[in-house]
Design a protein that fits this description.
- 46% of the residues lie in helices and 12% in strands.
- It has 15 helices and 10 strands.
- By secondary structure, it is of the alpha+beta class.
- The chain folds into 2 domains: 4-9 and 202-361, no CATH class; 24-196, no CATH class.
- The two termini are 17 Å apart.
- Helix 1 runs antiparallel to helix 7 (133-143) and helix 2 packs across helix 7 (133-143).
- It has helices at residues 24-34, 38-61, 80-83, 86-96, 101-104, 112-123, 133-143, 201-211, 246-254, 258-265, 276-287, 292-295, 307-317, 321-345, 353-361; strands spanning 4-6, 9-11, 148-155, 159-166, 169-172, 186-189, 195-196, 215-218, 231-234, 240-242.
- The strands form 3 sheets. A 5-stranded antiparallel sheet has the order 6-5-4-3-7. It has a 3-stranded antiparallel sheet with strand order 8-9-10.
Length: 364
């Protein structure tokens, strides 16, 4: 397990959605049990994606108040042995319930995490897939210790990306969630894919601004939350939320909060001044908070006075892993309170960029 050191404390947190580098044993497995079958595995992922599209769209049509924008993406031919699998339906439901209608209506646009998560969870189920020779080989590869995991990062410095690592390969089962005219599934060697991890908040903010058309603000309102959640985001519809992609929160813990601390100390490259209407909303929230465990996170300070925030960082960085994790869990609960409040205050027509960020924080 990776360890990091800051202020004399070694941390044993680590990001979960990072690729694993192949050692000699993995390379041997790749050559013997994976590479000869990758085309068949790819073809079965194409079929699975068709089934997921069909099932998701059928579920959403019965639930949404508006018609789906891109229902025509669904293929006519599907495989009943997958589609009728009760567990697949349950997995799909578990993902869809996390998202706002205004996000789901655009399926598959911007729902890369949903589609990839459904495929990954389904293939980790103890089920037989004899009709799909590629998946049979994939499961044998996994049973021998082969790498099969979700990864999250960036593609070509332009997009956030959730994909699958299969040994030395990169499988994107949601390739058309930005541009519909792209093939729904693609694969390549991981080293040739353009994928890379995101290791600093400056890169994260830059991609969020261009890819998601979002404004970012330093969290100077709640200094006790800032080490874990240093940013508010506002979508192009004005939807304000506190939060980060879960891998970036894990990065903060992994680095003993140095990524957040450094970003704030350097002035938060790419952020803009906090909007006055946002400050008014948050002041209204604080006036209605009574729980003592929540109030400890809501002390205000002036943006130009960062000395209090620095003291908080130092105090957190000197905590043990167990104590720091306890503070983090409390911070998550308080962030939920803030985001629920902001969600209620937004207008009904606003779309849910912040909702997706907030949802991803709390499903590690």
């Amino acid at each position: 397990m990776k360890t990091t050191k800051s202020s004399g404390i070694q941390r044993r947190f680590q990001r979960k959605l990072q690729p694993i580098h192949n050692d000699k044993e993995q390379l041997h497995l790749n050559d013997r049990d994976l590479e000869p079958y990758m085309q068949k595995i790819f073809e079965d992922f194409q079929t699975l994606r068709q089934v997921i599209d069909q099932e998701v769209c059928e579920t959403l049509k019965s639930r949404l108040t508006k018609p789906l924008l891109y229902e025509s993406i669904v293929a006519d031919q599907i495989y009943d042995e997958m589609l009728n699998h009760d567990r697949l339906s349950q997995i799909i439901e578990s993902y869809l319930k996390r998202y706002h209608e205004n996000q789901l209506i655009k399926y598959p646009i911007a729902l890369c995490q949903v589609i990839t998560g459904i495929a990954f969870d389904y293939l980790n189920e103890p089920i037989t897939l004899e009709e799909f020779p590629g998946f049979v080989r994939l499961k044998k590869f996994i049973s021998k210790g082969g790498v099969f995991r979700k990864i999250w990062g960036k593609i070509d410095e332009r997009y956030f990306q959730t994909a699958l690592q299969i040994g030395s390969y990169y499988m994107d089962v949601a390739n058309n969630t930005v541009e519909l005219n792209k093939p729904p599934v693609c694969y390549s060697l991981l080293k040739d894919s353009g994928y890379a991890t995101i290791d600093d908040l400056e890169t994260y903010v830059s991609i969020a601004k261009s890819y998601l058309n979002a404004d970012a603000f330093l969290n100077t309102c709640f200094p006790n939350l800032s080490p874990f959640f240093p940013l508010f985001f506002r979508s192009d519809t004005g939807f304000l939320h506190l939060g980060l992609e879960h891998s970036m929160v894990e990065l903060a813990l992994e680095t003993n909060l140095e990524t957040s601390r450094s970003f704030i100390q350097k002035g938060g490259k790419g952020t803009v001044p906090f909007p006055s209407e946002g400050t008014q909303l948050l002041n209204s929230l604080v006036r209605n908070i009574t729980a003592p465990e929540a109030l400890q996170f809501f002390s205000h300070y002036q943006e130009e006075n960062l000395s209090e925030l620095e003291r908080i960082f130092v105090r957190y960085q000197q905590m043990s892993d167990e104590v720091l994790h306890g503070h983090f869990l409390k911070a998550c609960q308080v962030a939920k309170i803030i985001n629920r409040f902001l969600d209620v205050k937004r207008s009904p027509g606003e779309q849910g960029f912040g909702k997706s960020i907030a949802a991803s924080i709390f499903h590690f």
